[in-house]
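Section 5: illustrative case.
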């Protein structure tokens, strides 16, 4: 998982949280506390659920290694929220209450990439803001499975 800061100044993530809602669940399934991290100006923060394997594959460590079953370990049909220190949702991927399978936010065996012209979070998932690759091509997504390492560029905003 990657978080991009489009601002010309660094963003301190003290007390920020990532939330994962598995499938159609309405209750939070897992979280990541982002405290202690800073995303540099116009930079990307990389999070991996398997930091040693990530470093082996890409040749550098992620900014944050987390556990499996975390928001960074989605299988492609879950929903995610970025929440600020005040509990305000700043950005959303997917639709809470909706299993992403077969929808315009499924990225199973693929990836979800925020379009480079989108520079602010959105509290409502908007398909047109994303390019979604997966193994089905359902609901307007791109049927083009993605494989590591050749199809990924961690830390680089495409």
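Designed sequence:
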């Amino acid at each position: 998982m990657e978080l991009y800061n489009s601002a010309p100044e660094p963003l301190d993530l003290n007390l920020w949280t990532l939330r994962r809602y598995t499938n159609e669940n309405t209750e939070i399934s897992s979280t990541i506390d982002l405290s202690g991290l800073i995303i540099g100006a116009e930079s990307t923060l990389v999070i991996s659920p398997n930091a040693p394997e990530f470093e082996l594959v890409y040749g550098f460590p992620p900014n944050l290694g987390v556990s499996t079953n975390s928001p960074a370990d989605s299988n492609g049909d879950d929903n995610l929220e970025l929440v600020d220190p005040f509990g305000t949702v700043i950005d959303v991927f997917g639709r809470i209450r909706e299993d992403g399978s077969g929808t315009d936010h499924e990225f199973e065996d693929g990836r979800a990439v925020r379009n480079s012209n989108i520079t602010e979070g959105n509290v409502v998932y908007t398909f047109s803001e994303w390019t979604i690759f997966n193994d089905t091509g359902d609901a307007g997504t791109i049927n083009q499975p993605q494989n590591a390492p050749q199809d990924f560029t961690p830390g680089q905003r495409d």
